[in-house]
Specification:
6 helices; 0% strand
Amino acid sequence: MDAFVELSAELTGFSAEELRSTGLVEQYRALADGASEAEIIELWYTGVWRGVIPTERAYAEGLAWKAVGVAAPGTSAPGFGSWERRPRRSAR
């Protein structure tokens, strides 16, 4: 297993497969070269690197949204009549 993914999985509590499914491993590995553990956690959870969102995908794939079981605001339409349904409960 890739050392960066292994470390990231340990730091974030998400599996290597979940991290790979974001499609951001290569980009984050390049950004996080020499970064602290806190910076790596922040990058994965928020999609922000040193005050900048590197791509729209980084924002949308932030682990904070996955942890609470919702899509990042502005990234997916809930659909007509969605206000009538209770929010889903996260499995986490």
